[in-house]
Specification:
The protein is of the alpha/beta class. It has nine helices and six strands; from the N terminus they run E-H-H-H-H-H-E-H-E-H-E-H-E-E-H. The protein is 44% helix and 9% strand. It has a six-stranded parallel β-sheet with strand order 3-2-1-4-5-6, with helices on both faces. The two termini are 33 Å apart.
């Protein structure tokens, strides 16, 4: 993991930070797009990059139903497992970190800020990404799309992540001081519905009108204190 910058003890910190995964921590979206196009075309359907971009952030089972309507003659679980297997394999071969994300995670960990990973992807891919970020323990809580809750854009994934973080640290965590980091419009809707200050970091889709509380062009150079300042006024 990268070496975090030295702490500034007088600066504010968020009470917790909850990260989306695909497109936010790692640039796996090209792998998903590649797998989706290949799958639909193999079943005689048509699926373009524009179709794939419209699906960014969608829960896997919800996405599978769309692929069925596009002509994929497989069950929902067969579609999910096929796509997930392709993306897991590609991510193991080459994990592409989003700019600034490893440094920010390391700095937050160094400051003792509770961290959650909140993803619509399922556990096999989350495990690969967690390993790429330093292994189990880097994130205090991991919420994946196969844990039985409603998918984004419902607030449930982020509400679950916030509740589990409070349980993990053994103390209440002020939700007004939390920050969620997202790259998709679906994810932004989920996090804002959960009442968490949401930072949008665009990857493949624009977020200027997504409802995010803050939109940053990149995480490069962003510090824990920068995130803390975003919510300091709300929390006061």
């Amino acid at each position: 993991m990268p070496t975090p910058p030295p702490p500034r003890p007088d600066a504010p910190l968020p009470t917790a930070v909850l990260f989306d995964m695909d497109g936010t921590l790692v640039d796996t979206e090209p792998y998903w797009i590649e797998a989706e196009i290949a799958l639909v075309r193999a079943h005689g359907g048509t699926w373009t990059e524009a179709d794939a971009l419209a699906m960014v952030g969608t829960g896997l089972e919800d996405a599978a139903a769309v692929f069925q309507r596009a002509g994929v003659a497989l069950t929902v679980r067969e579609i999910v497992e096929h796509l997930l297997g392709r993306v897991v394999a590609r991510t193991r071969q080459r994990t592409v970190h989003r700019d600034g994300a490893p440094e920010l995670v390391a700095a937050l960990r160094e400051r003792g800020v509770p961290l959650a990973l909140v993803t619509s992807s399922e556990a096999p891919l989350a495990e690969v990404v967690v390993d790429a970020y330093g292994g189990p323990g880097v994130f205090d809580v991991v919420v994946t799309g196969d844990q039985g809750h409603p998918a984004k854009p419902a607030p449930d994934p982020y509400l679950l992540g916030a509740a589990r973080l409070a349980e993990r640290v053994g103390r209440p965590l002020d939700p007004r001081g939390m920050v969620a980091v997202e790259d998709s419009r679906t994810g932004v809707r989920s996090a804002t519905a959960a009442g968490i200050h949401t930072v949008g970091v665009p990857n493949l889709v624009p977020l200027h009108d997504s409802g995010a509380d803050t939109v940053l062009p990149t995480l490069a150079g962003v510090t824990p204190e920068d995130l803390g300042r975003l919510v300091a006024g709300v929390r006061a």
